[in-house]
Amino acid sequence: MVDPYSQYRQTQVLAATPERLVLMLYEGAIRFLGEAKVAIAENNLAKAHEKLVRAQDIFTELQVSLNMDYEISKPLASLYDYFKRRLIEANVKKDVSIIDEILELVRPLKDAWAEVCCRKAASQ
Predict the structure, then answer these.
(1) CB count, 10 Å around CB of 36?
(2) Per-residue pLDDT reduced to its tens digit, 66-88
(3) In which element (H, E) is residue 83 found?
(4) What is the pLDDT of residue 12?
(5) Measured between alpha carbons, how far is 113 from 2 in angstroms, rounded to an integer?
(6) C-alpha–C-alpha distance, residues 22 and 62, integer Å
(7) 5 pLDDT band (50/70/90 cuts)?
(8) Which bin fits 85, alpha (ψ -120 to 50), beta or left (φ > 0)?
(9) pLDDT per residue over 85-121, tens digit each?
(10) Does domain 18-123 have CATH number 1.20.120.340?
(11) Exposed, middle or buried by CB within 10 Å (0-12, 13-18, 19+), for 115?
(12) Buried b (16+ CB within 10 A) or exposed e, 79-95
């Protein structure tokens, strides 16, 4: 049986602009990091591991999709690498404070991309 939520999500991804895809990745990372925090609080270490790995995968995807022809790409690549290294540490230690640190850095990036998406939509 096909999961309607998965089907809806797939349709969203296929119809999304590149800018919207980046925003969706940031939103996913934030969601997985929040879920990892809850799992750690509940002492569900397997679930925490799964959610932290999914967040790492998102930062890998963001990193490999960068167009290095743009000046902003190099610092973003370094930032994504930093996120991944810190999330590995958070995963090993099950340290919520590291997750909070990453969330504080990711939320403004997500907000900036949301603004880009809004401006692009308004100009079309």
Answers:
(1) 27
(2) 999 999 999 999 999 999 999 99
(3) helix 73-93
(4) 63
(5) 31
(6) 7
(7) low
(8) alpha
(9) 999 999 999 999 999 999 999 999 999 999 988 887 7
(10) yes
(11) exposed
(12) bbeebbebbeebbeebe
